[in-house]
Amino acid sequence: MLVLRHELTVLRRQIKRPQLRRRDRLFLSAMSRMLPRERWAAFIVTPATLVRWHRELVRRKWTYKRRRGQGRPPIDSETRALILRIARENPRWGCVRIKGELQGLGIIVSATTIRTILRRAGLGPAPRRDGPTWHQFLSAQAKGIVACDFFTVETVFLKTLYVLVFMHIQTRRILGVGVSANPNGAWVTQQARNLMMDLDHDPELCMRFLLRDRDAKYCRSFDAVFAAEGIKVVLTPYRTPRANCHIERLIGGLRREVLDHVLILGRRHVSYVLHEYAAHHNSHRPHRGLGLRCPHDVGEPIPGPGPARPEAIKRREILSGLIHEYHARAA
Predict the structure, then answer these.
(1) Where do the domains of the chain lie?
(2) 48-82 residues labelled b (16+ CB within 10 A) or e (exposed)
(3) CA distance 295 to 287
(4) Of 10, 124, 155, 323, whose CA is between 20 and 30 Å from 32?
(5) Number of CB atoms found within 10 A of residue 283's CB
(6) CATH of 137-296, one of 1.20.1340.10, 1.20.1270.220, 1.20.58.100, 3.30.420.10
(7) Order of strands, edge to edge, in the sheet holding 174-180?
């Protein structure tokens, strides 16, 4: 008995959890009813494990196999394709309207089945089944959309500064930049007023929408400034920075081109750097979304290729040579 017990101890050290078959479980469960409780220490399983095995047996008892050949017959692929075709071609039709159209064609399908087919295909209920996506909305309304967003800048003294930037979607122009160490409601509202005053001096910009995220820094008075001018504030979905991709691209480019290479001393310093970059961004920097043209040239005729002599090109340094601009000398 001592040798057998020692062998069991060695085996338990080698195998942490033995793999038991169904016959092993039945044998151990039957022996547990025959042996007294004080002898249960000889089992390799605990009493809780035996109870769990019993619960699994009860659960399997009430689990029935699905018998084939019963229930509603499946919808054939041709009818399913026809339903999806009608739904896409008529986005304002509901499930009952589609059911009536199919009934006129001699096809009987319930409205519930039609709704299930549409949901599995990713088509929502009418009348917004194929509503405009964010890309379609921004492309169609780009002329009247101004986007804004916050980002942070860390100074050499480890102080966090908050920057609010506004950009016109169609022309990619930076309309305003504000810097604050404490962007409270009064400061954010004043930035909105400054933007509206700047737009009054630029009649070419017809602002109809303001696109922003759901940051708590935007207070009610901030939205009220735009609502008073008949401008609708459009909020991006939760945790979806791609919905405001143009301003996110601007912030990323600003960091890679300037802020990642400059040690910021304070609020005045970062304000000077950002305004210098904004002037370069609007008047000279080419943009891929504009056909490699700068924002100030949007709407102007594209100049034809002219003679470019290397000795006639002069360089202008921005931010102490961090950014270079190249211009042709006047003849």
Answers:
(1) 22-51, 77-120, 137-296
(2) eebeebeeeeeeeeeeeeeeeeeeeeeeeeebbeb
(3) 8
(4) 10
(5) 13
(6) 3.30.420.10
(7) 174-180, 160-168, 145-154, 209-212, 232-235
Which pLDDT does position 326 carry in this prediction? 82
Q: How far apart are CA 84 and CA 113, in angstroms?
A: 12
pLDDT digit string (tens) for 152-189? 999 999 999 999 999 999 899 999 999 999 999 999 99
pLDDT per position as a tens digit, 81-109:
998 888 888 877 888 888 888 888 888 88
Nearest-CA neighbor of 149 among 104, 101, 103, 212?
Answer: 212
Give phi and psi for 291, each to the nearest 5: 70, 35
Amino acid at 115: R
3-state class (DSSP) for residue 30: helix
Q: For residues 25 and 19, give the distance between their C-alpha atoms in angstroms, rounded to a whole number.
A: 10
Give every CB contact of residue 255 below 8 A, 6+ residues apart in sequence.
151
Residue 63 has φ and ψ, to the nearest 5°, of: -105, 115
- The helix/strand/coil state of 136 is helix
What is the structure's pLDDT at 258? 92
Predicted structure pTM score: 0.59
CA angle 157, 159, 164 (to 5 degrees): 135
Give the closest residue to 147 by CA, choosing from 167, 131, 163: 167
Q: What is the dihedral of CA 223, 226, 228, 232, to 10 degrees?
A: -90
DSSP labels, 125-167: STTSTT---HHHHHHHSGGGEEEEEEEEEE-TTS-EEEEEEEE
Q: Could you tell me if 293 and 286 are in contact, meaning their C-beta atoms sit under 8 angstroms apart?
A: yes
pLDDT tens track for 211-254? 999 999 999 999 999 999 999 999 998 888 888 999 999 999 99
